[in-house]
Write a structure and sequence with these properties.
This protein is an all-alpha fold. It contains seven helices and no strands. It comes from Triticum aestivum (Wheat).
């Protein structure tokens, strides 16, 4: 007598008919149907990735120096209190990480629709503006960064798919 497992295919003999093979995007979708990111998205994403990298590098070096000085007891109590991580610092670092991720996804994500690249580029631009408002003092270079952000916004808005 045949059991129900033998009729469906037993998992003991190595056959698993209910599982599909794993495929990648390049195997399932032809390359010519994937839309490359527009040039405006590539330029804006490069512009948005740079400040995120600089902010992350700044905080990494800053806290590495503080940690090294505190290990060797070179900090006074007032310096140690001033070096504590604040919520603003955590917000700036999180914003920079999300900004870099959105900038990379805008260029590297394989997709059929161009609007996905634009959405990630706009997200990276918005995160850049928020991060710069948290990081830069109002009297410093906020005007220069605002002009750059405005130029990126206009590039995304006006250039389109040209």
């Amino acid at each position: 007598m045949d059991s129900p497992q033998k009729k469906l295919g037993s998992t003991m003999d190595g056959e698993m008919p209910h599982l599909l093979p794993v495929t990648t995007v390049s195997e399932t979708v032809p390359k010519d149907t994937l839309a490359p990111p527009p040039e405006a998205v590539v330029i804006v994403s490069a512009y948005e990735f740079y400040p995120a990298f600089v902010v992350l590098l700044y905080y990494a070096l800053h806290y590495a120096m503080i940690s090294a000085r505190s290990i060797f007891f070179l900090l006074t109590h007032a310096e140690a209190v001033a070096a504590e991580v604040s919520a603003l610092d955590i917000g700036i670092v999180c914003c920079a990480v999300l900004q870099a991720a959105a900038a990379v996804l805008a260029v590297q994500l394989p997709c059929h629709r161009v609007w996905v690249s634009y959405a990630f580029a706009y997200l990276a631009l918005a995160l850049t503006i928020v991060g710069q408002c948290m990081f830069i003092d109002p009297g410093d270079a906020i005007f220069i960064s605002a002009v750059g952000d405005l130029m990126c916004f206009l590039a995304l808005l006006l250039v389109g798919d040209k």
